[in-house]
Amino acid sequence: MAAETAAEGPVLIIGAGLLGASVGLGLRHLGVSTWLRDASPTAEAIGADIGAGSSERLALAAGETVPEPSLIVVATPPDVVVETVAQALGEHPQAIVTDVASVKSAIQEGLRTRGADLRRYVGSHPMAGRERSGPVAARGELFTTMPWVLCAAPETDPAAVKRVRSLAQDLGAHVTELEADEHDAAVALISHVPQVMSSLLASRLQDTPLHHLSLAGQGLRDTTRIAASDPGLWVQILSANAESIVPSLHGVREDLDRLISTLEDPTGPGARLDMAELIAEGNAGQARIPGKHGGAPKAFAQLTVLVDDKPGKLGELFSAVGETGINLEDLRLEHSLGRRVGLAEISVDPNRRDELVEALEQRGWKVVQ
Amino acid sequence: MAAETAAEGPVLIIGAGLLGASVGLGLRHLGVSTWLRDASPTAEAIGADIGAGSSERLALAAGETVPEPSLIVVATPPDVVVETVAQALGEHPQAIVTDVASVKSAIQEGLRTRGADLRRYVGSHPMAGRERSGPVAARGELFTTMPWVLCAAPETDPAAVKRVRSLAQDLGAHVTELEADEHDAAVALISHVPQVMSSLLASRLQDTPLHHLSLAGQGLRDTTRIAASDPGLWVQILSANAESIVPSLHGVREDLDRLISTLEDPTGPGARLDMAELIAEGNAGQARIPGKHGGAPKAFAQLTVLVDDKPGKLGELFSAVGETGINLEDLRLEHSLGRRVGLAEISVDPNRRDELVEALEQRGWKVVQ
């Protein structure tokens, strides 16, 4: 699959952070020649050290020739993407240029305003990331199995789209094409509004006594996990996609206002119905999120097994599951307070649950019915 | 541990839903005699069938004698707890009575208003639950390792507190004592406000095109998981704890209003600082949530391993981890779109991460650096 990309010549990656260095690692692993350029000499050197590509700066300093790239991946912070893509298109008139920023319309508009050659530009958004950033956190498999959205402009040459599609596919991503506006509306709802809600919620915990927080269960942990994200990056994302985010936040505010009024008079007329509607609407929205593998939401059957929190115990459990030939569809570990014992909740095909329970019990596992 | 409870005579459980039936299963397993009473004959019969206790209704119909309980656990829906506890205290003048509702002040006040004998009443809140409800979902280990808060009234006899503490401990829970008001303030923030935020967020997804939702990552799944909760139950919880929830929701609304104003003019003066503050405040709140085992937040080291999504593959991985003698502190499976390959993120003691990486790579695992 990578042969085509490799045959088409070297890839220049501008910005050696988490995404840029991960693209480099993935391509290098496939035998593609990659070069790194970063405003930070340190990031560029680290990127080269971990094997994401050759340092352009070091090569030029050593008087070596850097080959002309056929593809340029701009992976800078979002607020300098337009400028960087425009420069790259100008400096390398044969190269196809893509970027990996998570908001696409403003970039396309900015490039059009500057008169950039949009025939050779394809906006892209690999929907992969980590709570950590920088080249040290990079990994070649970052994009494996993840969605990667391509947003071609009306002016974009189909050959450019094909090249960027190959890049994403070579890195193991699942490619989708959307108009830039539609992409931005989608990520506002599935990524940016969740980030805002998680941050608003976690912000409330700043003054909570620690002995109250010690009572917290998985619900609080799940709802606040992404609140650990990087403020610097998110300022840029929220700014760039403000137009798509605001309507949803207005919707949230209307629902919140209604709920506050209801809770200020919780025995008033219609109060219980208002509360029930809020929760039921949440049920309805949540149920629409597809399961893994991009399929339709599917009800798996669960079983829960008590596991000693000791080295190897989970391994023994999953070996036992593996011996049955039944595929484990999902797994949750329940975190516990005080005791070193855990609960492993296993999801499997509903038609094979009973068989698995029996097999595990025969092997001495304590399955919770 | 359970000998004391068993020696003190039978336990009557009123309400054979998830919590009541789970209490029954756990106690029966310890050899304690339990009886079930439920307004629904079906629920009472199912509870008895799964082994949570003897059906009081069936025993009385057969002309048998039901022994006087020494302890009564009221596990009815929250809106009938006051009435049920008051009746139980009146009908069984020797029994200690507890309930398992998740809001405590209103119940204590309601009982005091009715002139109930608070010396024998101890409010309690086992902080365990599932997204599913009813006796079929019950499990004796539901409370194992989970927090269980006791809220004694000023009038409560210390012997009554001791008895209910034994119950919780026998069921494997980790017991904390709090004043009812303090408990309600704590759960408002760690449980009820997160539920509201998750429901408000998930509600936005009702009209989102499915092909947008198919791009969703783990962030959206985590933040909306608890939005699947039962509306009927949550109406009662939100009503009962409205007073403690509203101040936090006012705080959320102020932050949300500020953010909406900022996003409506994202290039205005101070806009970037406002956005950065929101995310940074979320960082600060999130970082205060303790890790598992109730300890202080601890930074584990992560490593990520590529795992074929086939039966037994996770088992082989965890067997390999187990052989190293290094304890697995946490585990996340990254759900993936389209491809049947997964990423397992393993958390371990930072001092042993390198050793584990080496050991796994020697065994042929693909560890992402």
Kindly summarize this structure in a few lines.
2 copies of one chain form a homodimer. Chain A has about 375 residues and is of the alpha/beta class.
**What is the end-to-end distance of chain A?**
47 Å
Largest interface: A-B, 141 and 141 residues
Task: Say what oligomer this is.
Answer: homodimer
Order of helices and strands of chain A: HEHEHEHEHEHEEHEHHHHHHEHEEHE
User: Overall pLDDT of chain A, averaged?
Assistant: 89
> Which structural class best describes the helix and strand composition of chain A?
alpha/beta
Looking across the biggest beta sheet of chain A, what order are the strands in?
3-2-1-4-5-6-7-8
Tally of helical runs of chain A: 15
Major pleated sheet of chain A: 8 strands, mixed
Q: Kindly estimate the percentage of residues of chain A that lie in beta strands according to DSSP.
A: 15-25%
Radius of gyration of chain A: 25 Å
